[in-house]
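Dig into what follows:
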Amino acid sequence: MNTSNSHEQPLRALIYCRVSGTKQAVEGHGLESQQTRCRQYARDKGYLVEAVFPDDVSGGGDFVKRPGMVALLAYLKAQPDKNYVVIFDDLKRFARDTEFHFKLRRMFAERGARVECLNFKFEDSPEGKFIETIIAAQGELERQQNGRQVLQKMKARMQSGYWCFHAPFGYKFDNIKGHGKILIKDEPMASVITEALEGYASGRFASQSEVKRFLESQPIFPKNKRHEVPQQRVVEIFDRYLYAGMIHHPKWDINYVPGQHKGLVSLEVFQKIQERRQTAAYVPARKDISSDFPLRGFVACGDCNKPFTACWSKGKNKKYPYYLCDTKHCASYRKSIPRQQIEDGFVKILHGMKPSRELFNLARAAFKSIWNQRSKQIEQTLESLKSEVIATDKQIQNLLDRIMSTTNTTVITAYETKINDLELQKSLAQERLRNSAIPKGRFEDFIEHALNFLANPCKLWESGKPHLQRMVLRLAFSEHLAYCRKEGYRTPKTSLPFRMLGHISTSNVEMVHRGRFELPTP
């Protein structure tokens, strides 16, 4: 068509421009400059620009992954009665893949659109198609070479301890002199993740469900449309070695490399989490545990040994709280016990666990003696850990020498697996070595809170805070408490510190008198 004829309508043009990333679009003004050149080209040709379709993603050569190109094709398909010219700034913006290049050419042809490029003239001759094929193949080669170089640089950087992918919750990237882009803590999210991980490792959270509910209670933690934290997100947090200060990416054969960033928890804590995930939770995790029934799920029926449930029973004028057994075929099935009766008996047990002042002072002196002994043991532990690191290094080197001397792929795979295990073992030993320094400070500064709890466990319970009450249950007792409707509580099985105090208080022990001490005569 001769566009110089004033009696004919000018051709309608659509402009397509693309950069390979959002950063180029925002900082480099790449889309704006491409659009300016294409508009100038359209004016010179006498075309009427109807719309512009930008893209700031590469798509890896596949135009279907580029939303701007998909929108352009849909625009053409929606107006089959109109003829359009599609203008590109450069042939490389078209499709940097030979197969997709010609597939895209066919799709434009099917929609009756002509393609024009600022630095390349499309021709239907054999020579023109040959040159077009070479240029498309060259673009594909450059894309693949660039991808390989980027991959190699990312692998090398990760092997040096730097994370190269999206920053997980609790971290953000920052440019630091001597490091470049490096992960740093993103507060207050980092503290939330730390509390979740350490809480699960220590037993404060009895299950992953409790961790999930803890995260849901944090306003800053992202949630889905139902204002919930998906269980899979908790699993992802527990699986990330990044939180332990390690780089672990098995897909690239990068295993347990010490990271340049600071971990949110220690590697030892992270390993405790993995071990706990393999075992059952001690205290059942329930969504309805609240201040109304703090002993729900912990006090068990004396007839069937199943945990009591609880409910509010509606009376004539008000509601009444009850604990009850909900296990069918149990002698106590659905027989309610007033909440006051259950909880008063429990508080009485806690009061009975409170040691006398003399016994507490004796226990305090024993703990201080143990503290001093432990300080001396730490020095021996440091030497042992240094020897362990050296021995592990030798094992790794021996396995590497064996790999070099064998061609059996099965044997090589077994050696590599063993090396990965040894690398993790070495990292754990090195972390324990860093963290095994002799504590600086007074004995009282470190153990005061624990001693206060031993002196009066009931005080923490009477705070009325559900998370502190659950902590009392885990710290003071080793098993569920059994309750019989007629007899009341059975003898509780307390945790080790309280068992020791109880054993001392019931033993036939007397203080030696200040006077002369003589052995009995036969």
User: Anything to note?
Assistant: Residues 325 and 333 are 5 Å apart (CA to CA).
